[in-house]
Amino acid sequence: MLITVAEQRVKEDSAVPERKHGMALVFTGDIWIKQFLRQRVVRPHEHFTVRGVFSSLTSREIALNQHHPLKWSSTRNSVKRSRSVRAAAANKSDSPGRTEYSPLEPVETTEGKITRLLAANERLLARITKLEKVVKDFRAENMGYLKDFNLVEQATSKRTDDSSVLETTTSPVVVDNMSLGTFPSTTQEANQIPSQLAGVEWPSQSDEIPFWKRKHKTTFHEVISSVSDNSGPVVKIEADRNPSYIVHVTAEMAPVAKVGGLGDVVTGLGRACLERGHKVLVMLPFYDCIDTQEVEDLTEAESFSSFHRGSWLPVKMFSGKVAGVPVLLVRTQEEFFKGVYQFDEVEAYLFFSRACLERMQVTGDQPDIIHIHEWHISILAMLYWDIYHHLSLKKPRIVLTIHNMEHYGECRVEQIDICGLDGSTYSTIDRAVDERTIGHNPERLSLLKGGIVFSNAVTTVSPTYADETLCSGWMANTLLKHRSKYTGILNGIDTKLWDPSNDPCLPMQYNAQNLFGKLVCKKYVQLGLGLDADNLLEDGSVLYKRKQTPLVICITRLVAQKGIHLIRHAISNIRERGAQFVLLGTAPDPRVQAEFEQMSQKFQKSKNIRLMNFYSEDLAHMLYAAGDIVLVPSMFEPCGLTQMIGMRYGAIPVVRRTGGLADTVFDVDDKRHKNKGNGFVFDGITEESLDTALNRALSYYHERREWWEDLTSCVMKLDHSWNKSAERYVELYNSVRVQ
């Protein structure tokens, strides 16, 4: 078909010539050709000869533009502008071969061009300003993770071509294939594997002494005092200019008296403040279960008497260091502290709290900050302001940290009388009465509420959990009333106590640059628990490509908060998928404990499942090192240290989005958190919700092994230390202390 278009323009209402099959049409204007194309569909395979204004268009361009007026108009105008420019050039006096020409459009004047360029410049400046604001907002929102993921930028800067990047559409993690050298990558290195393993004493399930009870060469305080953290870049911490004297009064301290994360927080925060130049002391009950070998330089200190039940009981103090932190252990003749939480908790901690203040009173020791933890020590704030501040203790200020709002410290009014206070004076809604019991006979008190009211500052252990507690629960009214002194500060972990490169519990240490030791730890645990073990010598030159069984670990207290129903489901799901699962933890409820012990017996001969219904600090270290995935399916989680410790040891977290888990774990497939992806996250509370995350993790482990190993290395480099959190606490201390 031939389409001829005349050079001269025609009127808009020009009629379209009648088309006949097989005839060549001659058009005299662009209006006609547009109307013609509306009537006949031009297919890309058809060939046209177009002359005139549209001579530069191909038949394919005509076909593509016929149903898009804007595109067609843009194409036509661009052709006209080209003709106009050529015409203007031809009209110049100094142009050779000048011919008379009537342009299609008026030539743009210099003044008009300047005006147009200035307008374009204004639009460009406005666009730049907008983009700068976007970048600024992004940096403000992601400042912490920009620092944590500098490794991504370093990896990117090393690239010489696109092939060196692990491309994926399902994860924002960017890695350099050079990091795949974390495993033996040459035949020579692979041949060294047997010699590296020669010093490992492999355990067996039939061993008389379980592998986690074997005597280690060093204790934790020896590790802290003699070995520096070499698992990552050294961060120099400058001493604060105005150091404080901080006394922590607590029911737990890791590793000597630990049940949950409280013990880790006290030790980690104490050590971090020491490194910043502050004076720190921890006061802790001298539980019968404390291993004195873990207390360095344990010596008897002061003796005095403290009030209890109308009389004065003798108290002995013992000083020492735990994990490098100075500690005072409180002991009395009464059998208050047989084991952690294995006694009448209310009466025991009422006595302990007053004994700590009494010691400060008789020795004249006046810290700047008395940092109390949980409901156990909340009575101390009431004792301080209603008794001891009226005596000689004038300087201290009280900071309360709530680690779990589920525990309110409920007690009777007459129990407060035990420690020398008049319990009836606190039975008001603006002091310590438990609002759930108003109108009951008798009404009860909440020690935690009293601590909130009487403390100078109140914190909880993550920003998200702080927001959640302001919106739910009966304590929300009290927290809202004291909102000005309530904040959430994310916990950290002690990166020296939890350091796979120096951990004395592990059969072989490792770090993010060399993960072979992690494979050794995994096989060590598999053999010791009677699970099917990976073969380290099989195709050693490409260890990350060979078949391995994913090991999922779950280290938790077996309570409803931790998602017991999801843990039960995970056991069966993981078993069906051919993976391995190890549970470590106890249940305070005898019925739950009996249920899991029965399940443990059921899986005793399984090669995939082990349920360890107790807690061992040494075994916990080994499981973190052995695990490929760490499961944290909590219904609510104030902060959670398990996911951070797991990442420190290279275990990828699978978590429910709540509390501190939402502040620390970001789904690798969530485009909203580009370059933050470090785990697998689900939102619901059902078994199906858990499966969406857990099944993805297991599939990625099998199908994307190189990507998985790089993700393991990346999460080990994330900074979950106490450095940032300690800085926030120091700011808080300075805001309330007496200057």
UniProtKB/TrEMBL annotation:
Residues 545-707 form the Glycosyl transferase family domain. The keyword Phosphoprotein does not apply. CDD domains: GT5_Glycogen_synthase_DULL1-like. InterPro entries: Glyco_trans_1, GS/SS, Starch_synth_cat_dom. Its main location: plastid. Keywords: Amyloplast, Chloroplast, Coiled coil, Glycosyltransferase, Plastid, Starch biosynthesis, Transferase, Transit peptide. One of its GO terms (cellular component) is amyloplast. It comes from the Eukaryota. One of its GO terms (biological process) is starch biosynthetic process. Belongs to the glycosyltransferase 1 family. Bacterial/plant glycogen synthase subfamily. PANTHER family: GLYCOGEN SYNTHASE 2-RELATED (PTHR46083:SF1), PTHR46083. This is Starch synthase, chloroplastic/amyloplastic. It comes from Riccia sorocarpa.
